[in-house]
Amino acid sequence: MLQYLYSRFYNKIFLPAAFCCFSLYSIAQENEKFISPAKDSTPAVIKKQTANKYDSAFKAHSPKKAALRSALLPGWGQIYNKKYWKLPIVYGALGTCTGIFFYNLGNYKDTRFAYRVKYNMRVNHTDSALYNDIKSNLKPIDEESLKFYRNQFRKDIDYTVLVFVLLWGLNVVDAAVDAHLMSFDVSPDLSFRIKPGHSEMAGTNGLSLVLSIR
């Protein structure tokens, strides 16, 4: 009985499984032999020249250096990337923001002073001598309106500082992106075409989409 079961197991299960495994292994070996030459058909000299070209361009326009310089001084990264036409945009944006900041700061101080003087005159009956120091355009304004304007100018100062920081950050990002793009090849040698025939990489016949970078 045991010999009969062993014979059936050997003939019905073991032999077919072994045959399948051997067949799959043989197919895998043949595919490996066929595909391996096409894995990297680029000559080593061309690969080395391309790598050296990219490395030299990357070192010549380092994004890290551009970002660091723009972070230290706005526009310095644009000068490093030789994008001089961006300097008026950078300094125009930051200069406008700075002007708005000082405008809000001056109005905040004036309205705060006027509100404090009128408040003390009404509640504590003091600071009456300082009334003449209030700006002439603020004297007719009532106390509650002065308080509202003071708070509004205080918010505008905060917003202006936030916008200034964002503009400074955009200046850094712009310099880093420009430095990255300086190492990209955008010459007319870049081409995209459809190539019919045999594909060495896929091992089949048909249409191939080929992007040539020379």
Helix/sheet category: mainly alpha
Helix and strand sequence: HHHHHHEE
**Rg result:** 38 Å
| Backbone shape | elongated
Tell me what portion of residues adopts beta-strand conformation. Answer: 5-15%
Largest sheet: 2 strands, antiparallel
Number of domains: 2
Distance between the termini: 74 Å
* Tally of DSSP helical segments: 6
Number of strands: 2
**What is the overall pLDDT average?**
75
Q: Helix content range of the residues, please?
A: 55-70%
Distinctive features:
single chain, 214 residues, mainly alpha, 2 domains, two-stranded antiparallel ribbon, 6 helices, 66% helix, elongated, disordered N terminus
Topology readout:
Blueprint: H1 2-35, H2 44-60, H3 63-72, H4 76-80, H5 87-123, H6 143-181, E1 191-199, E2 204-212
Helix pairs in contact: 3-6, 5-6
How would you characterize the overall build of this protein?
- The protein has 6 helices and 2 strands, in the order H-H-H-H-H-H-E-E.
- It is mainly α and 214 residues long.
- It folds into 2 domains: 62-183; 185-214, no CATH class.
- Strand 1 and strand 2 form a beta hairpin.
- Helix 3 (63-72) runs antiparallel to helix 6 (143-181) and helix 5 packs antiparallel against helix 6.
